[in-house]
Design brief:
Layout: H1 3-22, E1 26-27, E2 41-43, E3 47-54, H2 63-76, E4 79-86, E5 94-96, H3 99-107
Parallel strand pairs: 3-4
Antiparallel strand pairs: 1-2, 2-3, 4-5
Length: 111
C-alpha cells in the first residue's frame, strides 16, 4: 500500500476519533466494512455519523454521503448526520443533517 494512502487512512481514523469524542460518542469499529456496522461513529442511541475530512481549506459536499448515512441510520433507528472537518483543527467545523431531523431532535417535533 502506498505511503500516501496509509497516511490518509491514519489521518481519517484520527479525525473520526476526535469527532466522536467531541460528541461524547464512540467510533464504530470496522465502519462500513460490515453490513451491520455502517457509519463512522455513534452517539448514544440518537445519532449515527459519517466523517469527511480534508487537508485543504474547502470541501465539496456530496449528497450521496447523506443518503448513505441516512439509509444506515434508518436501519438502526438513529438520526443521520455528516460531519465535515479540516485536518489541523481539533473540532468539527460543519455538521450536516436534514432539517426535519434537526427540528425533531431540537424541538421534539413541535412546530
Amino acid at each position: 500500500m502506498p505511503l500516501r494512502r496509509i497516511r490518509r487512512k491514519r489521518d481519517s481514523l484520527k479525525s473520526e476519533k476526535v469527532v466522536a469524542g467531541r460528541f461524547k460518542g464512540r467510533v464504530q469499529p470496522s465502519s462500513g466494512s460490515l453490513w451491520f456496522r455502517k457509519g463512522d461513529f455513534l452517539v448514544g442511541r440518537k445519532l449515527l455519523g459519517e466523517c469527511k475530512s480534508v487537508r485543504s481549506g474547502s470541501i465539496r459536499f456530496k449528497f450521496d454521503w447523506m443518503l448513505k448515512v441516512e439509509r444506515a441510520a434508518m436501519f438502526s433507528g438513529r438520526y443521520p448526520l455528516v460531519v465535515l472537518s479540516f485536518y489541523g483543527n481539533k473540532e468539527p467545523q460543519v455538521v450536516c443533517m436534514k432539517y426535519e431531523d434537526f427540528e425533531e431532535l431540537v424541538c421534539g417535533g413541535v412546530k
